[in-house]
Design goal:
This protein has one helix at about 15-20, and strands at about 35-45, 55-60, 85-90, 95-100, 115-125, 130-135, 160-165, 170, 175. It has about 190 residues and is mainly beta. The protein starts with 13 loop residues before the first helix and ends in a 12-residue tail after the last strand.
Length: about 190
């Protein structure tokens, strides 16, 4: 048997096969404390075509702003019903939807409070590494003073803000490139 080179393309769609058993679109189970919310949106490529094979990985703190991780100094007070992560696929039209709770404020780089937010990693064909973004909430207090959001140019901040569309409902679209490109962070 001789080894053959893999296709010249970058990642995908092969990665999605390994992630399918790990999809979790209900990030917060019913027993989790906090305000239940639903986030809907769509992922678009650089020319505005919906991406049908993307996966969003979401990480967040619980309603008190405590992460389900032993390195969080407040871990002992963490809501045990809430694990704080999920993996959400897009459908044939590039749409995604997940339910969770609105997170609490967490300490920032110098201890100052950050506005409630979700960390979002976008996996899709054509990427060698996931694209890292944050999702803030249009009706959450603290957006104006968030130390990370303040580092984003004012004219691009709205690409990180999910708009309230109803009680407990939000809309956030991800644009991988182009005129409305979502702000992505280096890590």
């Amino acid at each position: 048997m001789s080894f053959q080179s893999t296709p010249w393309q970058t990642v995908g769609p092969y990665y999605r096969l390994g992630l399918e058993p790990l999809y979790r679109v209900e990030i917060a189970p019913a027993a989790a404390e906090g305000e239940r919310i639903e986030v809907r949106g769509q992922v678009f490529d650089g020319v505005g075509v919906p991406v049908s094979d993307a996966v969003l990985e979401i990480w967040q703190a619980d309603a008190q702003g405590i992460y389900a991780h032993h390195e969080d100094p407040r871990h002992a007070q963490h809501d045990p019903a809430f694990q704080g992560w999920g993996r959400v696929p897009t459908d044939a039209q590039g749409c995604f939807s997940f339910t969770t709770i609105k997170p609490g404020s967490v300490p920032g780089p110098r201890g100052e409070p950050q506005a409630p937010h979700l960390m979002v990693l976008v996996f899709m064909r054509g990427l060698l590494r996931a694209a890292s973004a944050r999702l803030y909430f249009s009706d959450a207090p603290g957006n104006a003073s968030d130390p990370i959001l303040a580092r984003v140019p004012a004219e691009r901040r709205d690409t990180l803000v999910a708009r309230a569309t109803g009680t407990g409902q939000y809309r956030w679209d991800v644009h991988m490139q182009g005129d409305h490109e979502t702000v992505f962070f280096d890590y």
